[in-house]
Amino acid sequence: MLSTLPQTTVTRFAPSPTGLLHLGHAFAALFAFQAARDAGGRFLLRIEDIDQGRCRPEFEAAIYEDLAWLGLEWEEPVRRQSECMADYEAALDRLNRLGVLYPCFCTRKDIQTEIDAAGGAPHGPDGPIYPGTCKALSNEKRQTRAERGDRFALRLDMEQALKEVGALTWNDLDRGETTADARIFGDVVLARKDTPTSYHLSVTIDDHLQDVTLVTRGEDLFPATHVHRVLQALLGLDTPAYRHHGLLSAPDGRRLAKRDKAQTLRSLREAGLSAAEVRKMAGY
Ligand code: GLU
């Protein structure tokens, strides 16, 4: 009989270099790092830089510097999403062959006009649910518009996708077996007009390709896991276990954000705090 080898735990911290890391990032990074450590596993760092308009090399450099200062160690080479476009393109090809993608030519304004005309739209976790305008376009119309150079995003036909995959669950280490309900998102964008991928697609592909076994991230991203689970099923990818942790708040009780300059690791360090003190502020 075949015996299965115990799986090594692989976790990751996946920041976007769009600003300086703050205490909330330190908490998320330490959470993932500690989870790998506790399990005798591996910890990865991934740079989520698909949004080239907002990402800056100096913020990426600061990520390495600040995390090293905090005492974290990660495996090299670090995966940078901007260097992995071919992986996302291959996944989109596959989804296209499954017939679960369609081009969407709508601008934000088009979508708003359509929603207003319909007297509103239900809200999903990412905002109002796309009303499906471009889903109704004929193939001829799609071709004509693409040929005349109209830019388009690629959306997941959620109804079709859910028909393909059926009922799905994932193992959430805090919540137990969790039922995926991606319908709440509607037809999400998987490839944007300005960059031929999206957060949902890249993160799902990367976690699979990097053999991540435990995804740890903030509970603000809990809804996204519903979509990721569907993509995994469509693409035949591994499903990691998940933990969605709480978020640190600013001293006034608001959620920490990149604009909270005083709480960046950089300013805490410059104010003379030691790495041990900052780890303690982050709960580690
Ligand atoms: N890049 C995402 C962020 O900075 C995190 C991605 C994830 O952990 O799934 O919020």
Task: Explain the overall architecture.
The chain is α/β, with parallel strands linked by helices. It has two domains: 1-83 and 248-284, Rossmann fold (3-Layer(aba) Sandwich), CATH 3.40.50.620; 85-244, HUPs (Rossmann fold). 38% of the residues lie in helices and 16% in strands. It contains ten helices and twelve strands. The protein has helices spanning 23-38, 57-70, 85-97, 108-117, 139-147, 158-165, 199-209, 222-235, 265-270, 275-281, and strands at 10-13, 42-47, 79-80, 101-104, 123-124, 127-128, 153-156, 169-172, 176-179, 189-191, 214-218, 241-245. It has a three-stranded parallel sheet, covered by helices on one side. A three-stranded antiparallel sheet has the order 4-7-10. Strand 2, helix 2 (57-70) and strand 3 (79-80) form a beta-alpha-beta unit. It is globular, with a radius of gyration of 20 Å. 35% of the residues are buried. The model has no long low-confidence stretch (mean pLDDT 94). The chain binds glutamic acid. The site of glutamic acid has 7 residues, from loops.
Strand content: 15-25%
Task: Give the C-level CATH assignment of the largest domain.
Answer: Alpha Beta
- CATH topology name of the largest domain, in short, is Rossmann fold
- Overall shape: it is globular
Low-pLDDT windows of residues: none
Q: N-to-C terminal Cα separation, in Å? A: 43 Å
Can you summarize the main beta sheet? 3 strands, parallel
* Structural domain count: 2
What's the quaternary structure here? single chain
CATH architecture of the largest domain: 3-Layer(aba) Sandwich
Indicate the structural class. Answer: alpha/beta
How many helical stretches? 10
Order of strands, main sheet, comes to: 1-2-3
> What Rg, in angstroms, do the CA atoms define?
20 Å
CATH superfamily of the largest domain: HUPs
